[in-house]
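Let us practice reading a record.
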Amino acid sequence: MQRQIEDCTREAKRRGWEVVETYVDNDVSATRSKVRPAYVRMMSDIEQGHINAMIVWDIDRLTRTPRELEDIIDLADRMNLSMANIGGEIDLSTPQGKLTARIKGSVARHESEQMSRRLKRAFTQRALSGKPHSYAPYGFTRTEREGEVWDEVNEEQAEVIREAANRYVAGESIRAICTDLMRRGIPAPKTNNWSATSLRQILLRPVNIGLRKHNGEIIGKCNADPLMSESLFNQVNARMFDPERIKHAQGPKNKYLLSTIARCGKCGGKMAGQAKHEFNSKKIPSQYYCKECYKIRRKREPIDEIVTGAIVARLGDPKLVSALSKDVTGELPKLRERMDGLKARLDIAADNFAEGTITGEQMKRINTKIVPDLDELKRKIGHLEGTNPILSLSGANAAERWANAPLEIQRKVISELMSVVIMPAGAGGKFNPELIKIEWKV
């Protein structure tokens, strides 16, 4: 990455261009759909006229899909954007330049997909043969047995896992166990701090009893010795995936309109809300801040006002009602019948879990596959029965209905209708509403 930056900087100097910003999305694969914060920020800066030229190391470093390339081409036409890459000019103002960019982008996409396909095939074959991953998991030591790579039990680490499993089965919480392990100075995998997430993942690994998991399914034995009994492993799973325990594990409710809904324009993380407070005798207003990179912190009230204004205008649009309304004739009974069928399948799975004929992991897989379909059916039935919160708030009196709606309903409507990205802002200056990016889903 550093070499690419140096090459681009050298090219800018050769052309006499001033470098005003460097946009880097490191460790984001070309085949992933994850948000690229630097790319989003760059596109915003181009649209606002902050930059009028760009240098990329290669076109396949800039765009991941033909669709993104078309966005760049349209933006270059609209903003008269100059563009260059290392090793040649990309003149997007000419048909030939656009054709060259499209061909290079399509070839790069094809190569990326082919590489992904080959890697997936290799990983699947490795998993089916029981061979371990590239490194030994916590609790094991990588060795060799009869000419094959093998993971033997690391007794010191395995004892920590077995202790945690027995304490969890006895009723202690994962968080309490983590706190105690850190108090005793027991090092965690790759770091000194134990987290509830990492310990939970360790306790639920099928490798703990010598089994291999691939793409969410147990596919057989693996090249590893078991470090705990199947009985203890099943007890951990039973408590972890107990439907009653999960149902009552309610977290704290969100107090702000966009908490965990709005995304950070720098890293793509979820934004959290913070109440107004005092710091060093200075009054700090209520804010939204990024929970992951902590590099974006913006005053909450004007952002809420922008989103509220946009959502009320959208709710008052007759086209929205038309898009969401459906003819109930003949459709509702079919949806209810399908919903009853899915509920019956869940009941059967729960009975099998209670009788011990399926494991907690299998119960989780069943829930993962059926519950989303069940939720989607409930949503459709809600639309038809007039209980859709979007429809209940839309129409001529949308502003009044919105103001009287509970926060929980407002947040649900926002989540279904739009995505919100809070872009970085310079120090000082007035609040810029253009840095609040809204994209409609419906």
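A brief commentary: The domain at 140-240 is CATH 3.90.1750.20 (Hect, E3 ligase catalytic domain fold).
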